[in-house]
Amino acid sequence: MTKKSLFTFLAIAFGIFCMVADQSALLLALPSISKFFGSDLPTTQWVLVSFVLAISISLLPMGRLSDLIGHKRVYVIGFLLLSVTTLAAGFAPSILWLILASFVRGVGSGMTQGTSMALLLSIFTRREGGKALGFYISVVGIGSAIGPLIAGVLLSFYSWRILFLMLSGLGFVAMAAAIILVESSQVKSIKVSEFRFDWLGAILFTVGLAAFLQGMTWSPSVGYSDPKMILVFGVSIVSILGFIFWELNTKDPMMDLRLFKQPLFSSGIGAAFLCFIGTSSVYFFLPFYLQIVLGYSPYQIGFFSASGAISMAVVGTFSGQLSDRYGPIKFAAAGLLIMAIGIFLLSTLTMNSSWVLPITGVIVTSFGMGTFYGPNNKAILSTIPQDFHGVVSGFIHLVRNSASVTSIAVGILIVTTFMASMGFAPTLSDLSSETEYSVLQSFVKGMRFGLICFGFVLLAGFATSLSGGKFKETEG
Questions:
Q1: Which residues of 97-136 are buried (b: 16+ CB within 10 A; e: fewer)?
Q2: Which of 87, 283, 366, 415 is 20 to 30 A from 69, alpha carbon to alpha carbon?
Q3: Chain-centre distance of CA 422, in angstroms?
Q4: How far apart are CA 296 and CA 91, in angstroms?
C-alpha cells in the first residue's frame, strides 16, 4: 500500500468508526432522552426506529447514485447531512423534533454506509478484496467496542445533548478527512444529459421496504392478524413485486436482479441474510437477560458487548487476508458454523448462570461473525463489475438491516408466545428486576427455545454458503 493509499484508508476507516459509534451511542442514549423529555418508551424508541428506517430505505438508491456520480461525492454529502442534522438534533426542543432529525440523520448515514465499503475496496486490488473487507469488519468491531464506552461516560457525567454534539464534531472531521485524503480519481463526472436514475424503482423499493420494516416493528405489539398489519404487509408485497417486475424490464435498473442468477452472488446474499437472522436477536435479548435476570449493571453489560466486538475486530483482519490466499467460501462457511456453536452455547443459559457462559457465548458468536463477514462479502462482490460496487455494497447493508429487524420481531414472537403458553402476559415491557420469578423463568425458557431455533438457522446458512460452488478469482 502506498503512502497516499494509506492516508485514504485511514480517512475511510475513521469514517466507518464514526458511523458505527453513532448508531451504538444512540441506542444507549434512549433512556436519558426519554427521561429528559418525559416521553414514554414506545415514543422514545421512534428516535432509533426512524433512524434505522431511513438508513434502510436510502441504502440502495444512494448506492446506485454513487455508482453514477462517484462514491466519494455521495460519501462526503452523506457525512455533511449526517453531521448538520446531528448538530440540530443536539439542540432539539422536543421529542418530535428529535424523531424528525433522526430520520434525516438516517438518510445521511445511509449515504455513507454503502459507499464506505465501495471506497475502501477501491484502494485495494481485486485480489485483495478479502483484506479490504476484513479491515472493514475490524473497524466495525472497534467502533462497536469503543462507541458504547465513550457514550456511557458522556451520558453518566454530562447529558445526551453533549453526546450528539460530540458525534456531530466527529462527523465533520470524517467529512473533512475524506475531502482532503480520498483521491480525486475516485470521483466520477457525468453529463446531465447522460444521467439515468431509476426513480420509479427507487419509489417502489422505498415503499415496499418501509412497509415491511414497519410491519415487523409493530407486529409484536399489535399482532400479526391485526387488519392494519395485514394492510401494511399487503402494501409491502405489492410494492416489492412491482419493484422486481420493473427492475427486470427497465433499461437502466437501480439494481440488476439478474445478478441472482450467479450462484456465488445468490448463495452469498442468502448466507448473509440467514447469518443476521440467526444472530441479531441475541444482541437484543442478552441485555434483558443480563440486567433483569442476573442483575448486572448497564456499565458491566457494556464490557460484555465490548468483549465480543473486540473478538470480531481481531479475527476480521486475519480471516479477510487468509480468504484472499485460500478462497473465501471455506472461511464464510466456517464463520457460520462457529456462530451456530456460540448461539447453542447461549441457549443453555439458566436463571442463575455464571457470567462465564454468556461472555463465552458472545465471544464465540462474534469470532464467527468476524470470520464470516469479509470472506462472504468478497465472494459476493467478486461476481460484479466495479461500477456496481456502490449499489451492491448498499444492498449488502440492506440485507443486514432487514434481517436484523426480522430476527428481533420473530424472537419477540417466540418469547412472548412461550410466556403466554405458561399463563403470563405476552409482553416484555413489564419485565424488571422486581418481576416475579416465575415470569422471568418463562422469559428465559422462551429465549432459550428461540436461540435453539436461531442456531439451526445459522446451520442452514452454513449449507447455503457452501451451495454457491467453487470460488474463482476474476479481474476487472
A1: ebbbbbbbbbbbbbbbbbbbbbbbbbbbebebbbbbbbbb
A2: 87
A3: 34
A4: 33
Contact at 8 Å (CB) between 276 and 454? no
Which phi and psi (to 5°) does residue 320 adopt?
-60, -45
Q: Pick 201 or 97 by higher pLDDT.
A: 97
CA dist 251 → 21, 189, 245, 476 (Å) = 39, 21, 12, 23
Could you tell me the three cell numbers for 215?
410491519
Which amino acid is it at 93?
A: P
Query: Is 80 exceeded by the pLDDT of residue 421?
Result: yes
Please report the pLDDT score of residue 184 as a whole number: 56
> Could you report the per-residue pLDDT of 67-88, keeping only the tens digit for each?
778 888 889 999 999 999 999 9
Confidence of residue 377 (pLDDT cuts 50, 70, 90): confident
191, 64 Cβ separation under 8 angstroms = no
d(CA 294, CA 291): 6
What are the angstrom distances between the C-alpha of 126 and each of 9, 123, 268, 364, 384? 16, 9, 17, 30, 11
Structure confidence at residue 1 as a pLDDT band (50, 70, 90) = low
Output the nine-digit C-alpha cell for 84: 448538520
Coil, strand, or helix at residue 416?
Answer: helix
CA 313 to chain centre: 16
- Please name the residue that has the C-alpha cell 433512556: 31
Round to whole Å and give the CA distance between 452 and 322.
31
Residue 282's pLDDT band (boundaries 50, 70, 90)? confident
How does residue 248 score in pLDDT terms, banded at 50, 70 and 90? confident
CB-based contacts of 344, cutoff 8 Å, min separation 6:
451, 452, 455
Residue range 246-250: mean pLDDT, rounded: 82
Average pLDDT over residues 324-333: 87
DSSP state of 251: S
> What pTM value is reported for the model?
0.81
360 close to 314: Cβ distance less than 8 angstroms: no
Kindly report the backbone phi and psi dihedral angles of residue 401, in degrees, each rounded to the nearest multiple of 5, phi listed first.
Answer: -65, -45
The answer to whether the beta carbons of residues 90 and 168 sit under 8 Å apart is: yes
Rounded distance between C-alpha atoms, residue 324 and residue 253, angstroms: 31
Specify whether the CB–CB gap between 376 and 272 falls below 8 A.
Answer: yes
What the block records as the C-alpha cell of 237 is: 408485497
